[in-house]
Fold:
Amino acid sequence: MPKIGIRTVAVLLFGPPGCGKGTVGKHLTGCFDIPHISTGDILRENVQAGTELGRQVQSLMENGGLVPDGMVNRLVQDRISRDDCVDGFILDGYPRTLEQGKALAGMLEEQGLEPLVIHLKVDYNKIVSRLTARRSCPQCGAVYNVISKPPKTDGVCDEDGAGLILRGDDCETVIRQRIEAYEAQTLPLVEYFRQLASKFYTVDGNDGSPTDIAERACHHIRAE
Ligand SMILES: [Zn+2]
Structure:
């Protein structure tokens, strides 16, 4: 992917469940040439390194608790103040709440970075048909998609021959709840950054693979 000559930006990616956001984010590193920072990775690194915050996070997660905003904010701040982030970074899995968004806006201002927002728009029916097309292997956990990544033999895992199943959280009622939760939690955050960021791009996430969507976002930004 040809590089974009924008420097010192923090790329924030928002999109509904099932749009392949994590993968889109990884592919955007090829476009911006800045690191991809996932909060999942930051949490795991801190737990493994046994930092003070890592120990707190670990005990929270072991007890099934949610990691509070303040703690996630501190972990992100610590990560994005490292040397590899001076020219910017792509955030994955953060911010998730308006509280986190406001904290991030403060951190970016301090670091002299500008937010660049990519908002992936996907039609409701598209999300439903994508997620209900998922099939999982109950034995090894492999995930297939009857539309985009079918197994070699219908309904059978390529790895171990087990019969594939439709998981409970991939059925339409649960998907509808996840979309509603996304809209309630994330859309206010998107609105907050729409007001704040001078670089705000709405990208069609309906068709193509996450790589295609990342390229579309990249072209869209370059065309401005
Ligand atoms: Zn399997």
